[in-house]
């Protein structure tokens, strides 16, 4: 299983290499092919039971709507619903297989967090809703960022999804998860010779997968986010390891804590898949920020953004889309869509965002909504 460092070394990362480098930004329009359906599209996401459960019929209808809209890339993880999101997605793919061109669909899942039954040993296979099966909330998560753990995770994910292969794998939340206690350095484990990075490079070289990525929170909250560890993982894994980085929560209208992660990706030639563009709900009419009850300061800031959007004739979610896609290194936007109506709504926000002018961001800075170090696109 590879050596585990006995203690967590200081997580300090020197940003000297990229602090002076600006993040390249521009106003641009995205299409459906630039959208990735996230875990919420197929059931619970985050901690089991975090969101209201939906039926398989809901998932199938959502999948049909996504394919009809031109969305063909899907992101999931064992962590989402303790494996049930993967299984629902796999069933929906099977139920709507004739609606997409052969080879058009790309599925990504993640490694680093395994799920076992309540006995603590038995891997969680398919059939989560079978009579007599223990509920997903009782499943046990085991963190494993070793090469062996990554390969086991892929095998178990494929079994749950009923697929022969996935397009890509991402290393999921090392040093930033509910099981992390600081006793070991999961980033160092993943980047070790016997770590998950090695396994994913081998799987790509062997043609088992085509894409290697990471999926981490780039915000910086007391309960979530490790931007320094993202940069450390990219650098310690070595050049050419990562094709993309799925960065969540730290590049949206309310938080730009992940800006240096985007700069690092731009410098390294790593495509960014940006997630958390709604700050987990507050920017699209919800009440949560970073998956917790939104603090008043964020509620107030959201209202100022809403006022600015309305002044210029835009919806707040469209502004969230436009800001998320300013960095040139952002190639895809990952967003959860659980119903056909949400798919239609999301495509509308995406199209609306293309009309947001560069001058709006200058005005936002003048209002104090964006810090001086947040790069702005040139006037149009």
Residue stretches low in confidence (pLDDT < 50, at least 5 long) are 1-18, 45-51
Number of helical regions: 12
Write down the overall mean pLDDT. 90
Report the order of strands and helices.
HEHEHEEEHEHHEHEHEEEHHEHH
Helical amount among residues, as a percent range? 25-40%
Question: What share of residues are in beta strands?
Answer: 5-15%
Overall geometric form = globular
Based on DSSP secondary structure assignment, what is the total number of beta strands? Answer: 12
Tell me the span between the first and last alpha carbons. 54 Å
- Identify the strand order in the major beta sheet: 1-2-3-6-7-8-9-12
Main beta sheet strand tally, sense and closure: 8 strands, parallel, barrel
Describe the protein:
The structure is a single chain. Strand 1, helix 2 and strand 2 (73-75) form a beta-alpha-beta unit. Helix content is 34%, strand content 14%. It has helices at residues 16-19, 56-69, 84-95, 147-161, 186-191, 196-205, 227-237, 259-268, 296-311, 316-324, 340-353, 358-366; strands at 35-37, 73-75, 106-111, 113-116, 140-143, 168-172, 211-217, 244-248, 271-275, 288-289, 292-293, 330-335. By secondary structure, it is α/β, with parallel strands linked by helices. It is globular. Helix 2 (56-69) crosses helix 3 and helix 10 (316-324) crosses helix 11. An eight-stranded parallel beta barrel has the order 1-2-3-6-7-8-9-12. A two-stranded antiparallel ribbon has the order 4-5. Strands 10-11 form a two-stranded antiparallel sheet. The longest helix has 16 residues, at 296-311. It has twelve helices and twelve strands.
